[in-house]
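Supplementary Methods, section 5.1.

A reviewer requested that the exact input to the structure prediction be made available. We therefore reproduce it here, unchanged from the version used in the analyses.
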Amino acid sequence: MDARDWDRRYSGKELVWGAEPNRWIVQECSDLAAGRALDLACGEGRNAVWLAERGWSVLGVDFSEVAIAKARSRAVEAGVDLDFRCADLLDLVPDQGTYDLVLVFFLQLPAIERTVVLGRAAEALAPGGTLLVVGHDLVNLTDGVGGPRDPSVLYTPDDLVADLGGLEIERAERLFRDVEDADRPAIDAFVRAHAVSARRDAG
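The structure derived from this sequence is encoded token-by-token as follows.
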């Protein structure tokens, strides 16, 4: 799907993904000290707004102009101040060494494009910063529910680890997510990694 497809999907009054933050960001970030965050493929801004409500300085980026407009409206309604930018992540080069937290949630791209985006996401981390990547796992195609049906945009935790050379991997696993009215869970690929803290010069 290109930006125009997503513009059409986001054009309705209802929120495509709901108002609540993704369950995995709540699980993984509730105890983190607030700092600077970058939310790549932020959609309608639910995760970015949630972070801003907890004191984070957030930049959310998505290539759908409609999604960004809805995200800005949500931020106003929530009474939080954060930045949103409409940009194609394949063209975006975030400031290096800047962010304490980078999110890449459910960005489903072919491997060669995913590697580019995740490499830049890793470079955007400040020393000690945390990167969270979550997406539809390859095995979700056969054993899970929902998500894209094109295997070329699905991946595994091992694929994500291979994309993130240079970071310290804290966790790489499959997560199982209950889906309403489904007889089995959705299966997500998950990686939590962090940038190596700056080392003091010897002597």
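The CA atoms of residues 135 and 201 lie 38 Å apart. These observations are discussed further in the main text.
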